[in-house]
């Protein structure tokens, strides 16, 4: 998982979403709103298809799922489920891109602490503040806070909901990315006169699962060979950290 920058929609697309939301709200007041039917009818329109294209553009050429970053993002996901939060059904900031597996696992799940969501929204926060990566297993796990001696509750609920620590194919993909990034760092350590810009470009190219956030913002800085780069080439480390914010 990685932080995703949300794009602005075309004005006419945003206007369409606002119009559909207003119509849905009116039906809700009258007690006639069927969220499944309402979304299904809207989903078949060319305008909602543009919403999907905008979400896919946010994920770059690979168009990966915003939750797992492993599979193709094939459909629109409601972060706050439309059945429980019908007033957010057509809100742009409530729409994400997900794969069929993450969509199936999340479904209408939405754990909260009061009104506070306990699922990570990658378009609003840095996932690696709540998640950690285990290089040995390839699993995504909750991040441990040594100051409070507790695991991130948001990280725990996200891992449980999406089964991020139980999906073998997902773990295999993350392990491969970890291996590729490690090799790039080792190559640079062996050739420290190489271009920093070239290193950054190669790391970005090979980071298919958002692990650069784990390395430079999370606990990956304590893992070899990344900790060696930090200790022996602090200026290079700082340049990479700035590039991958």
What does this structure look like?
With 245 residues, the protein is mostly helical. It has ten helices and eight strands. The radius of gyration is 20 Å and the shape is elongated.
Summarize the structure.
The chain contains ten helices and eight strands.
Tag the structure with descriptive keywords.
single chain, 245 residues, mainly alpha, 2 domains, two-stranded antiparallel sheet
Query: Rounded to an integer, what's the Rg over CA atoms?
Result: 20 Å
Helix content: 40-55%
Number of structural domains: 2
Oligomer: single chain
**Residue ranges: pLDDT <50 for 5 or more in a row?**
none
Q: Could you tell me the strand content as a percent range?
A: 5-15%
How are strands sequenced across the largest beta sheet?
1-2
Going by helix content, strand content and strand pairing, the class is mainly alpha
Most strands sheet: 2 strands, antiparallel
> So what's the overall shape?
elongated
Average pLDDT metric: 96
Total number of strands = 8
Element layout with pairings:
Layout: H1 11-30, H2 35-43, H3 46-58, E1 75-78, E2 95-98, H4 100-106, E3 112-113, E4 116-117, E5 131-133, E6 140-142, E7 144-145, E8 150-151, H5 153-162, H6 168-190, H7 196-206, H8 211-216, H9 226-232, H10 234-243
